Amino acid sequence: MSKEDKKVLEYDEDDSLRFIRENLPEEMQDEFSDDEINYVVDLIYDFYEEKGYLDENEDDDPEIEINEDELLEYIIRNARKNKEILGRDYTNEQIEAIVAGELAYCDTLNLFD
């Protein structure tokens, strides 16, 4: 099994959701449904896809450096554009907290080493 195959097997959406919830600031613990958190996480992976970070055709394992400011800008812009899907607006701080949780979860799996 290649290193990349192993990484894919390690990532678990339920573990990600649980990890994000546990690492949200206390005042945000009960502010989001599972669907809302998953929506923001989906936007993260839309960003990765758009940037080519998930391109499976890569023969070598290039180092991926994520520009967190660009990532946040993308997510904030798209969350606001699609607020009818969510039924509400997010603050930048709420989005940043969810993104920080997902990035921290990925760090625990060494997904972007």
Structure summary:
With 113 residues, this protein is mainly alpha-helical. It is built from six helices and no strands.
Write structural notes for this entry.
The chain has 113 residues and is an all-alpha fold. The protein is 64% helix and 0% strand. It is built from six helices and no strands. The chain has helices at 3-10, 13-23, 34-51, 68-81, 83-86, 92-108. The longest helix has 18 residues, at 34-51. The protein is globular and about 35 Å long. The protein starts with a helix and ends in a 5-residue tail after the last helix. The model is unreliable at 5-9 (pLDDT under 50).
> Please, what is the average pLDDT?
83
- SSE order, as H and E? HHHHHH
Number of helices: 6
Structural class: mainly alpha
Distance between the termini: 18 Å
Task: Reconstruct the topology from this structure.
Elements: H1 3-10, H2 13-23, H3 34-51, H4 68-81, H5 83-86, H6 92-108
Keywords:
113 residues, 0% strand, mainly alpha, 64% helix, 6 helices, globular, single chain
